[in-house]
Design a protein that fits this description.
The complex is a heterodimer of chains A (281) and B (309).
Chain A (H helix, E strand, L loop, with lengths): L1 H12 L11 E12 L2 E12 L3 E5 L6 H7 L10 E10 L5 E3 L7 H7 E4 L11 H6 L12 H14 L3 H4 L12 H14 L4 E5 L7 H14 L4 E5 L3 H7 L2 E6 L2 E7 H6 L4 H7 L5
Parallel strand pairs in A: 3-8, 3-9, 6-7, 7-8
Antiparallel strand pairs in A: 1-2, 1-4, 4-5, 9-10
Chain B lengths: L17 H50 L5 H5 L13 H31 L4 H14 L3 H13 L7 H26 L2 H9 L4 H29 L3 H4 L19 H10 L3 H29 L9
Helix pairs in contact in B: 1-11, 3-6, 3-8, 3-10, 4-6, 5-6, 6-8, 7-8, 8-11, 10-11
The chains are: A alpha/beta (281), B mainly alpha (309).
Chain lengths: 281, 309
């Protein structure tokens, strides 16, 4: 727990300051293996995710890309029978490194630093738009804030998620009345409200129409300037559009990772080439 | 809507062969037969659907006709009178039934909802499967058996009948109903919602309480109201426990009047005026159950905004 505390204070304090080394690694998995019962879904993935960038994870269905993403904030283990081996190191901007799978690391605390957005929008149906965005604040380290402070945080998060103009007049109404695309941006706002260092998106546009998809992709470009983003997508065009690095997974293994342009134009592995040229998947 | 003219097809006119013609006629015959069978089945189902509502409509109509004349303000405010005296009401029985429902809920709600939450949260556990099975058996237990047991353990040792013994019997009947509905309502909450809360840094207990239970709450409230409505009219568990009371009593330690018992007493008596009162009592009881049922329907609706910060 002690390491945890230093992570909290350091990382949150330096939230707005831009580092000298922009491609400093932020999140790195080392020999990560994930299992469902006795079957391995992820077989020893070592991948570094640079700071202030979008990293895309692509691969055919069932290749383990979602499972890998869920290992990065300790969500994988919430499934009964699931378990993880290996390390995932989160590096704060002040240089503190911290293995989220270290003995004594608290998964609940880890998830406060690494936000997540799922494939389908998941607004809490009993809460208003405002309360949805504020939901994470109630459990965050600088929790118990005044109603006024909460309103400020909610507005900021909704503005960052490009949803403020559409909902500012009905913050107290039900979140489930929003459209699917709005709900997904609400979920992004909810994840942003607690100022996580990293945000993981699991096929965030898979259930959305093209216009909502475009809005979310633009949003990722905005957010990229201040935080670390990992996005899983089965859509290669999307990976090419939004990411600066791309990792290709196949059968639970990392086949290749490279700057996105390089991976799509001159992949070094024949399997990557086969996938991106549409020969399988 | 104007449809653009379609130029005639340049293809030659198709002349069906004999076998094609025969096939088309067979197909048409099949379609005709299916249409007829379909309309017959649909009519039968319609009759069944109407028949399903007939008992309730018949009972309501009958109760209205026979009970409404005795349903005076005195019925709600006055005590029962001895035979031969005009007037009199069932004030004590109405209040008694409300007290019994309240006391039974106080016993049954926490246990039933708690057990249901346990079953939903630990769905794979062996103990959960045992509890679920036993709860289903308890649900099927005849209510008279429940009454006899309450008598054996709560009336005989004490030496006298009491409202509490009846409330325990009714509360025990509520438990399995509540366990079942609570578990089902909680399981209806999508896993995605639970995961969304966990990913926000909610601890497991907080996720269960603040997100899952709150999302399932309207359904649980409905289940509670339905269970209350079910026990409101129970008579058998009360026969050996609360006994009934011709006088005013609101004490849990004393025998208490209850509408079902009062109806039972009056209906088996030989006096015409008591029969009329029994019909009125039945009407009040069924109205009470209907009111609870309507409340349950309202609770099922989206109850957004019914919470504070």
């Amino acid at each position: 727990m002690a390491t945890n505390v230093s992570l909290t204070s350091g990382a949150l304090a330096s939230g707005g300051v831009r580092d000298a080394t922009t491609d400093q690694q932020r999140l790195a998995s080392a020999d990560l293996c994930a299992y469902f019962g006795s079957s391995a879904a992820i077989r020893g993935i070592t991948l570094a995710v640079p700071d202030r960038s979008v990293t895309a994870i692509i691969g055919p269905s069932g290749c383990g890309k979602s499972t890998f993403l869920r290992c990065l904030n300790r969500m994988h283990e919430t499934v009964p029978g699931a378990r993880v081996e290996g390390r995932v190191v989160l590096t704060a901007r002040d240089g503190d490194a911290f293995d989220i799978y270290a003995k004594g690391a608290n998964p609940v605390a880890v998830r406060k630093h690494i936000g997540m957005v799922f494939q389908r929008p998941t607004p809490f149906p009993t809460m208003s738009i405002r309360d949805n965005v504020a939901a994470g604040l109630k459990v965050s380290a600088n929790g118990a804030t005044s109603a006024r402070r909460t309103d400020e945080v909610v507005e900021r998060a909704l503005r960052r998620a490009a949803l403020w103009e559409e909902v500012k007049d009905r913050l107290r109404t039900s979140a489930v009345a929003l459209s699917g695309g709005q709900q997904q941006r609400l979920c992004i706002a909810r994840a942003l409200a607690t100022e996580p260092e990293v945000i993981l998106l699991d096929e965030p546009t898979a259930s959305l129409d093209p216009i909502s998809t475009q809005r979310i992709e633009e949003l990722l470009h905005e957010l990229e300037r201040e935080m670390t983003i990992v996005v899983v997508t089965h859509n290669m065009q999307q990976a090419a559009r939004v990411s600066s690095r791309t990792a290709f997974l196949l059968n639970g293994e990392l086949i290749e990772t490279a700057p996105t342009r390089q991976l799509f134009t001159s992949p070094s592995d024949s399997r990557t080439e086969a996938y991106i040229t549409g020969r399988f998947g | 809507m104007s449809v653009p003219a379609i130029s005639p097809s340049p293809r030659p006119v198709h002349r069906p062969s004999d076998s094609q013609r025969a096939f088309a006629e067979r197909t048409l015959g099949t379609v005709r037969r299916r249409r007829i069978v379909n309309s017959i089945m649909l009519s039968l189902l319609f009759i069944a659907a109407v028949a399903a509502t007939l008992p309730l409509l018949f009972i309501l109509f009958h109760l209205m006709r026979l009970g409404i004349t005795s349903l005076t303000p005195a019925f709600f405010t006055k005590m029962p009178r001895p035979v031969g005296e005009a007037g009199g009401g069932m004030a004590n029985a109405i209040v008694g039934t409300l007290i019994l429902i309240g006391a039974a809920s106080a016993i049954g709600l926490p246990i039933g909802v708690g057990a249901g939450l346990y079953l939903a949260e630990r769905r794979g556990a062996r103990l959960a499967n045992v509890v679920r099975y036993l709860s289903d058996v308890l649900n099927g237990l005849p209510s008279i058996v429940m009454g006899i047991f309450a008598w054996q353990f709560l009336v005989r040792p004490v030496g006298h009948f009491s409202a509490l013994a009846g409330a325990v019997a009714l509360g025990a009947m509520m438990i399995p109903m509540l366990t079942r509905t609570t578990e089902e309502m909680v399981r209806l909450v999508p896993v995605a919602l639970r995961e969304a809360a966990l990913a926000l840094g909610y601890a497991k207990w907080r996720t269960s309480l603040m997100i899952v239970v709150r999302t399932a709450a309207p359904g649980i409230v409905t289940g509670a109201l339905v269970a209350m409505a079910r026990i409101a009219g129970e008579t058998a568990p009360l026969l050996f426990t609360v006994l009934g009371n011709q006088f005013w009593s609101v004490s849990l330690g004393e025998p208490i009047a209850a509408l079902p018992l009062q109806i039972f007493e009056y209906a088996k008596s030989p006096y015409e005026e008591w029969h009329a009162l029994a019909w009125a009592g039945a009407l009040v009881l069924i109205s009470l159950i209907l009111v609870i049922g309507v409340a349950a329907r309202f609770a099922t609706r989206e109850r957004f905004g019914a919470h504070g910060d």
